[in-house]
Structures are given as structure tokens and as C-alpha cells.
Amino acid sequence: MDNKLLKVDIQKKLKEFDLEVAFELKKGRLGILGPSGCGKSMTLKSIAGIVTPDKGVVSLTTNDEIIYFDSDKKINLKPQKRNVGYLFQNYALFPNMTVEENIGIGLSKDDDGKTVSEMIKRFRLEGLEKRYPRQLSGGQQQRVALARILAYNPNVILLDEPFSAMDTFLKEQLRIELLNSLKDFDGFSIMVTHDRDEAFQFCDELIVLDKGKIIAKGDTYEIFENPKRVQVARLTGCKNISRIEVIDDYHVKCLDWDVIFEVSEKISPNITHIGIRAHNFSAAEKDDVNVVDTVNSTKLEMPFEWEITLANGLWWKYDKRIDEHVFEIPDYLKVNPKDIILLEE
Questions:
Q1: What is the pTM for the complete model shown?
Q2: Beta pairing, strands 188-193 & 29-33
Q3: CB 99 within 8 A of CB 131
Q4: Residues 6 or more apart from 334 whose CB is under 8 A from it?
Q5: Which residues pair with 218 in a beta bridge?
Q6: CB contact at 8 A, 241 and 230
Q7: First to last CA, the chain
Q8: Cys-Cys crosslink for 143: which of 17, 123, 211, 282, Cβ 3.0 to 4.6 Å?
């Protein structure tokens, strides 16, 4: 993998905004996280050759460089020539073909059936070879679609919101299956999603996209821990975000909650908001640092957590067992200065 590089630098004018995406991927799994309609799927389709950008370059370097698209050089390889596997939301299996026929559809006529047999075994599809897609569960359909893609040994696999139409239980199951299926894949994989849990679980690196522009890029854990921008914090699930007025280098007045908090990092002039993850509050004494009282707060019971909303709008999530139904809210809560995220607009 060390000498491999996927380079994407494209622009395309869309109805709502201009798509401008540039990144280089050297290894592992990349996620593109963003709200619906932000240009995620359009980026995938541009890599696959389903959509043609207005300008830019898409190329893959293994031992040699393969240029998929270059507007200046007038190169635009057809999708069939790119060796890119595209897993659509609905898997796009051929309804009139059996499992083994679907898996073998992209193989050359010279293939003796060995590849299909290997894929059937690898994806635990034994006994389903003669079934049609309508006779399969969602998980089985996904495995057939992945087997079909991996049968012809692609360099890149593109996953277009593969779990968006599934219920929670099936979604969890298939995420694990997908991760296991791609463990031994030696190429690049890119998943687009609007689900922060999927992005966190699946992706080594992350791009956050908003209205066609990249607003964050880097290691997935780092982006979740320090999102840096308000919109990135929201997309990664930060529930508490407030505008601030800077008091001094380490203290801010939170305008939306009417409280003063101490932070652990010196506040630079470009910081306009702070964020606090809902799980990062804990019970406190009145004289602790960064204390808020819980007078007139409201309590909502969920199966595995309590959701407490304070009178000033701050939100606290507290883990619970499913058989625990009584919870006394402490008089005071606190947040560690280290757990306050400094954000730019």
C-alpha cells in the first residue's frame, strides 16, 4: 500500500453550489461525512466516471499512474475501464440473475468459475448460489453485491450510503460484516454517509463536506475530538454549542446559556463559539470549576441513558442500565475545562 495514491481534485458547477473537492488518499478507508445534498455522492460518481467534472484530475498510482480523468489532457476513462467498484444504496443486483450469476457478471469468459466459488465461500453464501435477489435478506444482498465487486479485484471500492435504508438492528450487523469483508482488501475504499456513527466506526480518515466544500480533513479520531468549526462539531454530534464573548485568555461568557466557563486552551481571536459533548458533564459541588445548577431541569428516560435538559438549554446525557428507572438529578453539574471545544464559525 505504501506506493499507492488516489488523487482527486475536481470542480463541478451544480444547481445549488459549486463542488470543489481535493484530497489525496495513501492508504485505508476514507469517509466523506456531510448532510444530504452537500455533494458527497457527486464526488463518488466523479471518481467512478458516472459523472464528468467540469475540470480537474482523478488519478490512481500503484506501480504506474492511471489517469481516470484530466480535463486539461482531455482524458476521461469510461467507468468500465477504471477498475472501480461502486456499491449503490440499493446494491443494484440484477433481479433476474441468481447469486452466482450476479457475482460472475463482471468476470471474463475465460474464468472457470473458481473466482465465483471463492467469493461464495469468502462471503458465507454457500447454499444460496441458485437464489435470486428477492429471496435474500438485506445482509445477504449486501454480501452478494460486495462479492460481485471484489470478484474482479478492483483498485477502489466506493460505498454510497450503504446502510441508509435499513433499520437499526440490521444496520449494526451489516456495519460489522462490511468491516470484516474489507479487512483483507488491499485497495482504497471510500464511504459517503450523513451518519456520524458510521463515519467513526468505518473510516481511518475523514473529510467533512458542506455545500460542496471541504470544511475538515484528517484523522477521524482527531476530527471528532477537535472539530475546530461549528458545522463540523454539529455533524460529529456535538449537542451543546454556544456563541461566546471572550472575558480573558481562559474565560468566556456563553451567550446562549448565560454562564461563564473556564477553558484549558488560550483563546485565539478567531474563536466565536464553544462546544460541549452531552456526555461530558458530571455531578459537582457548588464551589467546583465550571458549575451549573440543575434547577427546573427536565428529565427524559431512554433505554440506555437519561437525557437531562437544563433550564438554560444545556443538554446532559447520562448512561443507565435498561432496568434502572429511577434517577435523582444532582443539584450541580460541572464540565472539565479540557472538555470544552473551542470553535470557529
A1: 0.87
A2: parallel
A3: yes
A4: 281, 282, 283, 284, 288, 289, 290, 291, 292
A5: 206
A6: yes
A7: 37
A8: 123
What whole-number distance in Å separates Cα of residue 345 and Cα of residue 232? 10
Are the CB atoms for 147 and 115 separated by under 8 Å?
Answer: no
By the 8 A CB rule, do 74 and 17 touch?
Answer: no
Q: What are phi and psi of 266, to 5 degrees?
A: -60, 135
- Please tell me the distance from the alpha carbon of residue 248 to that of residue 215, in angstroms, as a whole number: 28
CB atoms within 10 A of CB 228: 18
Interior CA angle at 262 toward 257 and 266, to 5°?
120
| pLDDT category of residue 186 using cuts at 50, 70 and 90 | confident
In contact, 10 and 32? CB cutoff 8 Å: no
CB atoms closer than 10 angstroms to residue 81: 11
Amino acid at 185: F
d(Cα 182, Cα 63) in Å, to the nearest integer?
A: 22
Convert the pLDDT of each residue in 237-258 to its tens digit.
999 999 999 999 999 999 999 9
Q: Which three cell numbers stand for residue 294?
A: 440543575
3-state class (DSSP) for residue 317: strand
- By the 10 Å C-beta count (0-12 exposed, 13-18 middle, 19+ buried), 62 is classed as middle
Q: Which residues contact 9 (CB under 8 A, 6 or more apart)?
A: 21, 22, 23, 56, 57, 58
